[in-house]
């Protein structure tokens, strides 16, 4: 969620530079350092490391002894399904925002788009995901130690 907020802030800054330099309708690079993307990639990488370790630990501890490999495989299938869902969401956003002659949030020329809105929407979905996770985690009962 913090990575998406960071990406939205950087994209908003990039769009402001685009406006100030008069590059909105030109398909050219914006004079902005690529290092602005560093914080969001750091946050995303740290989140993936911590979540994958926690996911592995959870499935190893909570699955029956004879099903640990299968449960680990299901966790990886879950990650791949999430990636497909992200692609589907991206397609839906473009479909719903590019109506009525509008270019939408994610046009071919990003200088004319609003990718920052997409990042904020993804941050909102991440917040919703965290709330559902906390709801489920509070009701989870750990496996009995054998």
Automatic annotation (TrEMBL):
Family, as annotated: Belongs to the major facilitator superfamily. Proton-dependent oligopeptide transporter (POT/PTR) (TC 2.A.17) family.
Annotated localization: Membrane
Keyword Transmembrane helix: yes
Record's bilayer topology term: Multi-pass membrane protein
Pfam families, per database record: PTR2
Keyword Transmembrane helix: yes
Membrane-crossing residue ranges in chain numbering: 72-93, 118-138
Name by which UniProt lists this protein: Uncharacterized protein
Molecular function per GO: transmembrane transporter activity
Organism: Triticum aestivum
InterPro entries: MFS_trans_sf (IPR036259), POT_fam (IPR000109)
UniProt-listed SUPFAM superfamilies: MFS general substrate transporter (SSF103473)
Cellular component, GO, one term: membrane
Predominant cellular place of this UniProt entry's protein: membrane
Annotated keywords: Membrane, Transmembrane, Transmembrane helix
């Amino acid at each position: 969620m913090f990575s998406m907020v960071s990406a939205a802030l950087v994209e908003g800054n990039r769009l402001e530079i685009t406006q100030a330099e008069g590059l909105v309708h030109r398909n050219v690079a914006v004079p902005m350092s690529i290092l602005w993307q560093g914080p969001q990639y750091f946050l995303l990488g740290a989140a993936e490391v911590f979540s994958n370790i926690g996911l592995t630990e959870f499935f190893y501890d909570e699955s029956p002894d004879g099903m640990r490999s299968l449960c680990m495989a299901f966790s990886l299938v879950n990650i791949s399904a999430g990636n497909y869902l992200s692609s589907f969401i991206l397609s839906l956003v473009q479909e719903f925002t590019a109506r009525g002659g509008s270019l939408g949030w994610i046009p071919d020329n990003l200088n004319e788009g609003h990718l920052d809105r997409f990042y904020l929407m993804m941050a909102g979905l991440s917040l919703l995901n965290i709330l559902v996770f906390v709801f489920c985690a509070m009701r989870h009962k750990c496996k009995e130690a054998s």
